Amino acid sequence: MGFLALACMFSQRVNLSVAIVAMVKKRIQDQKEASQICFSSEYYKGNASFSEGNFDWDEKIQGHILGSFFYGYAITNVIGGPASHYFGARLVAGFGIGLSSLL
């Protein structure tokens, strides 16, 4: 049970870092980069892996999103220790993973 809880928490941490890349709109930083990109529709025709993100987040906002997850991850470990003493480790771990999955 403990292994599955840790595996679930680790997969959520990794998946957020990977998913944020697909969620964000691609930005062209400068004119040199723009000239290297092929905007031909024939190149992307039938390419199911190409997708444009829905969110217009810059690097600072992306950093806040990833940082808030990691800060919450660290803070809840400090709070979870005393809480598991009073309520039991299974209840606290189950509630923590369930809440994290819901969010």
From TrEMBL:
Gene3D superfamilies: MFS general substrate transporter like domains. Keywords: Membrane, Signal, Transmembrane, Transmembrane helix. Its main location: membrane. It comes from Armadillidium nasatum. This is Sialin. It is a multi-pass membrane protein. One of its GO terms (molecular function) is transmembrane transporter activity. Residues 1-19 form the signal peptide. InterPro entries: MFS_Na/Anion_cotransporter, MFS_trans_sf. It is found in: Membrane. The keyword Transmembrane helix applies.
